[in-house]
Each structure stands twice: as C-alpha cells, then as structure tokens.
Design goal:
The chain is an alpha+beta fold. It has 19 helices and 27 strands.
Amino acid sequence: MGSILIIAASVLTAAPSSPIATAQINNELRASLTRDYELEVLVQPHDGDAWTRLAKRVTGDAANWETIAAYSQLDDRLQSEQKVRVPFALLRPSLQRDVIKALFPNDHSTAGGWQHVVAGTYGIEGESLWNIAEWLTGDGANYTLIRKANPSQGLSTRKGDVILVPKRLLTAAFGGSMEEENAPKTAAEVRQPADDPVQRAAADENVPETTAQPLGTAALTPSPIPASTPSLSPASLSYVRTGAEPYAVYRLQPGEALYSSVAIRFTGRVYSKDVGDVVERIVKFNEIDDVARIPANYPVKIPIALLLPEYLPQDDPARVAREATRRESAKVARRTRAAGLSGVQVILDAGHGGRDVGTEHEDVWESTYVYDVACRLKALLEKKSAAKVSMTTKSKSRGFAFTDSNVLDGASDHYVQTTPKYLLDDAIVGVNLRWYLANSLFRRAIKQGLAREKVLFLSIHADSLHPSLRGAMAYIPGAGYVPPSYRKNGDIYLTREEVREQPTVKQSREEALAAEGLSRDFAESIMTSFRNLGLKVHPFEAVRDNVVRGGHEWVPAVIRYNQVPTRMLLEVCNLGNRSDRELIKTAKYRQQLAEGIYRGMIDFYATQQQDAPAPAVVASRGASK
C-alpha cells in the first residue's frame, strides 16, 4: 500500500492553517471545516492500535481500514504517532452528528427535518447546497431537492442563511428513518418495482437486459477492489486513479441492471446505440464473460472518461467547473413573480411538423402528437391564466384545434409563422426560423415594457431513447454551449422580416449564465408538477443542460440561439418505449401533459422572488484560530 501515489487532491493538499471552525469531538477525533468547505476528520490512534480496531471504533466496520489507509496515504503499518484522516461519509452515524453539531452549533433537528445555518466566513459564498446535501443526506445530488424545499434559496449561500433539509432525505445520523438512507437511491428505489421500465421494456420490446442476480447464481467471482481505492463519492462510487485507465467502482444492488443502473445512470447515455456501446465497453473493461449472470454486490468498474460530471471525483476539473457554473448561473438569474401568469408572454413551439415528422414508431408521428399537446396547452393558458400566448407553427388545415380522438391522423401542412410564412419542408431551415421568430417576439415584448423574465419559451417534443426508459425529460441551455454570436445567411432566411430585424444573435456570458439559471428553475418546476400529477418522468437527471449522443455534446439549436432568458425543450415521453407510446396515443394523457405543463408554469412564477429578502440571520461560528 506504500506505493499509492494518486488520490483525491483534497487529500494531497494540506488543509489551510486557519480553518473556518475546528472542534475536538472526543479524546481521539478532531474535526475541521476547511476554507474549501470540506469536512476534515483526523483520528489519533491509540498506543498499540491496529487498523482494524481503529476502523471498527470510528466507522463501525473493521473492513473499512483499507479505504481509510489509502485515503490517508498510509501503509498497512499503523503508527500511533500518525494522525489518520477518515472520510466523513464513513463515520458512525453518532460521530457524523457530533461533528456537524460541533462545527455548526446553530444546527438542530426540527419536525420537518434538519435546519442548517450556513457558517461559511471565507470569501463571499458559504458552504454550497451540494456540500450540505453531501453531509446530511449522503448524496450531493440531493441539492436540487433541498433547493425545492427552500424556494427562495439560490445555489449560492451566505453566512447566516437558514436551510431546511427535509426529513425524508436525511441519513440516520440526522433523523432519517433508516441507515440505508446514507446511500443514494438506486434505480430500483427510484421507481416502484411494478413500474420498472427496464423490466417492462424487456418484455415489450424483446430487449436483452442485463440484470443483477442473487449471490450464488453467478458464474463469476467478483473481482477484488484494489487497496488503492481512496476517494468516496456521494453516488456510492469509489475511484481508482492509478494504472493505465482510471475508473470508478459501483457495486450493483439487488435487482439492478447494467443498462439502467450503470450505463444510463452514471454516463448519461440515453439513446439505444450509445447505451449499447457503453455497456459493451464496460463489459470488456470488467472482463465479464456472462452478462446475464452478474451477482448482486458485483463491483462494476466504469472508466472515468465515461462518467457524467456530477459523478466524477470531487476534485476533477470537469466537475469543479460544472458546479461553479451552476452556482454562478443561480446568482445572476433575476427572478420575478407573476400571479396567474399576469403579464407573462408564453411562446410555444411544437417540435418538427410539415414534412419533418420527427421520430416515428409504429405510425405514431412525433410532430402530430406534440402539436396536439401544444394546442391543448395554448387553450388552457388562454382560458385559465392571464398569459399572452404565441405559437411558432400552425397547421394550415386544423389551425389550433384539437379533438377527443385518441389516435391521431398524421398532418404535414404545418408552417412557421414568420413573415412571410414558411411551409415546413427543410427541417434545419424550420428550426432556425423558429428561434428567429422567438427572438423577434421577445424583442417586441421588451419594447412593450415587459420584463425579460416574464417571457417564456417552450419547445415540446417526444424522444426516441433506449426502450428501457420512460417519461419526460427537459433540456435547458447550458451556458458553456451558447455561442457569443451567431447568424444565418441566404435568401431563405433574409426574406423573412424576423431575420432582417436582427440577423446576428449576440449573447454575453452573463446573459447565458442567467438563462441557464432561470431555465433550470423553470424545468425543475415542470418536472415537479409532472411528478405531483403522477405523470412519468425520466428516472435519472430529468433536467439536462446538454444532449449527449454519438460521442458529442450540444444544446438543441431552438434553445441554443434563442434569446428568451427562460427557455427549455421538453421531451414529454419516450416514443421508443411501448408503454409511453400507448399513453401518448390517448387524448386523456395528452390533456394531462398540458395540465402538468400549465401547473408548472403557474408554480414557477408563484415561487420566484425578485430582490428576495435575505432569510433571518442566525449567528454562526466564526473562524477558529
């Protein structure tokens, strides 16, 4: 173990000499909140101590000694004069609680959960919602749920901010109902077993799915995890960054599958070919001989290059940059209220249309069914709210009418409502004219005195993903994918008034960041509305700031070059999944989708706050000298 050279940067870098707070927890354990907002836990071994005894005392499991030794860059000979670093996530629940209470003395349990008072005093920001989620729920990804429980709280925090972590998210250390809540939700826990899309898809589509089997049924013996797996992730991943190709390790839980629980969850791949390619690579990387007989608790090694940023090691530049962008986008997003959507301009865009039918499965045309949803939403908004509604496209024969028919006949007479109109023929031209039109409508709204934040753009689509997946997914414009300027040339564009008004689109970095922040809030509001109404939602990262497909990442053009600050592309279902197809073919479900979007819009403007007052300040502990 003395040969370990590469581990998390937070371990290699000495903590600042003056942490924000330090506390002696007991006679052997001392904890600090560093200026990087990390919890550093140091243990002084007893005279004649052994690794297994120390691990048992501090974590409750003697087997954790190898991980602790690697984390501290120590070999297997424990010296009593050497202080040992222990990951906070490995501590016994009682010790975790003692550490938090000592470093954050104003924290306390409430009937609704755990109330955390931000103590950060270094720089402008305090500890992030990600930090708080990681410490109190065991999974940093729960920061989105914490934010929903604290609607006036942005991603960035300030000293004295009071943040409630709902009880259902807490680990056992902080009042959670069971020790298992220390781990993130698995695929099987995200969905009800009877509604597992992986199992249904395998039956519906004859897709061979790799499912974890009970121990004792496999032909494989799980590969031992090298002793050099130091750093832990809130997503139940550990990392090995030595060797030719660094990788993460995830232990399959009972009932989990390589497709859903590994390839889709951790790599973000959702398209059938991409999922298949990733699974094939993981199978080869692990030298798995029989993918149909993988036991529960099998340690699946995932090349780090495949992971989504949020599942990378905490010090990985890609993850650091992503989290920094999220915090920054939340800070610059200016929010406002609009009761009943009063004064709000909604621009609705039904994807594809005309000769471009979009994706098609068993005679179900994407363009036909999403246009029906858009028309229903338009009618709802005009009947029940004070919003002004514009549509980017229109059917020449049907207008904006819809019927109670379940199965719809295809229509190919849609046109973009530019001046002059464009009968949808070329899909690329059609997409570009949509965002030019949206930008023109946005400019007109601003000239009429409407606040920028009171304009919404929504493009409605239906996806074609791996058949194991179900439900809605939203794409928002990640700031890193929005170019500072862009234009289209050619007569087909310049003959339109909306293009001639402003042929070149320009967006500053701050505008792109503000759009990401507002759009994320909008998308999360829609997803929450869907869940509340029992509508299907994608099980893993339902809100995404870019598309990952075929080895490339991008933002769809209709929101990439769009200047409306609050904008998103909504995939209402996966037409590649038979159950989703059957649902979208019913007028009832299409109406429910429209209701869900409408309710999400109402809630978005009901919970936003312009120049929100700061929460009550509770004194927190200053820096310890």
